[in-house]
Amino acid sequence: MTKLKSPLTKPTAMIAAVICLTALGTSAHSTPLANGKPASKSMTDKAQQNSWEAITWNNGKRDVTHWLNPEEYAEFHVPDSTTKQNTSAAAVRNTNSQQVKTHGMTTIWRAGPQQVKSILSKSPVDTTASRVSPVFHSSPHPDAPRMALPGNIIIRFQSNMTAESIDTWLTRQGLRKVRHLPGDGLTVIIKSEPGMATLNLVEQLSSQTIIDEISPNWWSEAHLR
Amino acid sequence: MKPSANYRPLLFIVISLVLSACENADSTGGGSTNTTPVADAGPDQNVITLRQVQLDGSGSNDADNDSLNYAWSINGPTGSTAALNDATIVNPTFTPDLGGSYVLQLIVNDGKTDSTADTVIISVNAAPTANAGADQNVITLTEITLDGSNSNDPDNSPTPITYHWAIVSKPAVSNISLNNTSVAKPTFIPDVDGTYVLQLIVNDGRIDSTADTTTITSISDPLYSKQWHLKNNGQNAGIRGEDINVEAAWNTEIDTGTGTQKTKGAGVHVRLVDDGLEIAHEDLAANIATGQSYDYCGRDNDLANIPSRCAGHAHGTLVAGIVAARDFNGLGVRGSAPQASIAGFNLLFNFTAANALDAMIRDITTVAISSNSWGSQDHTGELSTALTPRMPAGWLNSLQTGTTTGRGGLGTIYTWAAGNGANRQLDIPDDIDNSNYDAFANNRYVIAVCATNDKGQQTIYSENGANLWVCAPSGGDPESTEQNITTTDRSGGISGSNTNNSRNDYTDKNYTNTFSGTSASTPLTAGVIALMLQTNPNLGWRDVRLILAQTARKNDPADADWKVTAGSPTYNVNHKYGFGVVDAAAAVSASRNWKNVGTERTFNSGVKTVNASIPDNNRIGVRDSIVINNSMSIEFIEITFSASHAYHGDLRVELISPSGTTSILAERHLCVYGCVGNYDSWVFGSARHLGENSAGTWTLKVSDEAGLDIGQFSSWGIKFYGH
Questions:
Q1: What pLDDT score was predicted for residue A86?
Q2: Min distance A73 CA to chain B CA atoms (Å)
Q3: What is the interface size between A and B, counted as CB pairs within 8 Å?
Q4: Would the pLDDT of B603 be above 80?
Q5: How near does any CA of chain A get to the CA of B461, in Å?
Q6: How much is the pTM?
Q7: How many C-beta atoms lie closer than 10 Å to residue A13's C-beta?
Q8: Given CB 3.0 to 4.6 Å as the disulfide criterion, which of A219, B79, B393, B460 pairs with A156?
């Protein structure tokens, strides 16, 4: 399972936190700073004040750590197959969440920690509604890139495996294959539920010797250049 | 008294004689006779309309030498309003206004009696009128037809009109000629942009018309002159020649077996992995590969009908114009490969690991070039990928799949924006990002593209990196006069870069002059590669890399970082510029007869444990060496490095080759988010040892160049790729 680690603190002498334009909704090369100067100490203090939970998982080769933002969640919209209009989960519609940002098929919402927990605990009613996931950061900093788990896992199998032996193993494990990626057939996407269920499954599978590397199907903020 | 009857016969005779004499002479009172004058209206004339005719009545005479009075009258063709200037003089004039016969009558009078009338016939030939046709705005290199058919000859005589066209003026470098100068509708092909003035004179067998002219304004792409990145003439304070030298490449003819074609990228397919693409854009539509785009929001190939959440695609439309805006269509701009086919993948609107993997290899067999103007978040200083601190499982395998199965097994070429995170505009002592901190841009499967400005120097944002392969022009410092890139934009000014509220941008809202970043340099390079692949479709993906390196131009030659590699052939190389700025003409030329390199060889040293403390705040640092006995000509090196350090931004990491060539893999820098995570088997890439021999002693130097935080150099290894 996930392991809890202490929030990272940073040395003060070299701190120069700056506000980055995540490319959510922005384009091309953008001036990176809000005012052309390193950000104020207060922003750093804010990061330090966060007592975010460190979530560590293993990708088959080494541990990887992310930080869980307790006050945000991600909503993944699912377009209707015919109208391409988006539907939204009742769990999201019925809250007083504040929209942090939206880009493409994903919206980040902010709410109180208890409300976030409540929303994340409810499973989507059906597959045509949007899905929700906790929001993670790659660093314990409120402006660090956000990530979330829309569901599914990517597994790279050892080179002695074949597509057939992989399928056999997946069946034995009760795992549902989404598809093999083109190429040598050793990279497979398997089904998993959105949110922590994905990380839990990754953690379960990462020690399997036939797996070379495994990672959740992370959603991340996009960064155009 | 009455005469007597006896004298009556004699009286009759006398009277008869007197009367007879009176019939031959006017009574002058003096008893002398007057001779009737004779009118002479002069010889008949053949003249033309609208030219003055002078009559000549001077041949009239009077035997008595009495002075004569002249009385002319004119009778012209129906409708004529021609009139004599003076009908009472000997040489009156008139101007025939219509063709036909003018009969002029002259009667002279000697003061006593009128002459008999004399007439002269002036036969008037109507002058033909030339009509060279309306002025035209046309597209360069497109044949146009002149139209002199509205020229006319009112009397259609004496012969049908003939045509005589001539070129009055043309652009200085033009070599045009008319296909036939003596027909009503000749044709020609404007060969360069500019103004052409052509003259027409017609002749009716007797006389030329007045000349008429028509002005042909020819333009290929209206904003082409603004595209300094394609042709830098020094416009707007740029430096002439600081471009990709592509015009000569375009003009290179390729033998297709059934003829020749210019090198414009035709037949080469470029995939743009971005935030979408306006496939109906007027200047892109002709090059869109139908059905080959992909919508990651709606999960189909229909980019024309995407969910409203993903309808932005502004960036992708900017990128698309740089690589393949159609040329010579009279619209907007021109791409570096203006006839390549393009498709858009809007990955960035639904950016998941699985989608990113998919975008690299979906239907890859038909994709020649995958152009990627995205990557990890810039301006952070963190070791990162766009997805996690680690690449998703299978990432490099997917790129390997593309380079081994793409393009019929010759390999898809991946171009990648090297990064905009240098942050040189900040008042801080170090650059923040180095392209080698981005695992998307520093691996061997991609061509990492950096950016130069309109003066050929590193742009303020373009990241350094030992992994850089080539640079290409892009927009500069927004606080300076450095120009940005002109390209296509979302149509209509509603969204995109050039909106209806934009200032200092084009009035045509389908285009913008604001694009910048390594995002622009990357598709520019992709376009050049398309020209190379059209020239030689058999080039492998590694061959393309080698050609680009060999033919790149050494820009900013005074920069101190330029070094010459130690191998054979040698290359100029620079941490700011890779092997230099892409030179399209040179690359196309080298592609033509290129002999592909052989099978790729690899050698992996394995990981060597070091476990040495790194002296804090000490530039001497710690070194470790690995001796390589395997000999190959290096194409790329991967350096796997591990060090535990509380703030990895303090570390400078350098690789020194047996011949002394140095690759700076990491520099002291700031981290925005705290330099989270160690160098835990981080893989750096280096292009700087291209052509060197792998055999010998390789040294890694690690130094901690800032105080407070300390750490340990744990291990390293080196893997060579070459031939």
A1: 53
A2: 16
A3: 260
A4: yes
A5: 8
A6: 0.83
A7: 10
A8: B393
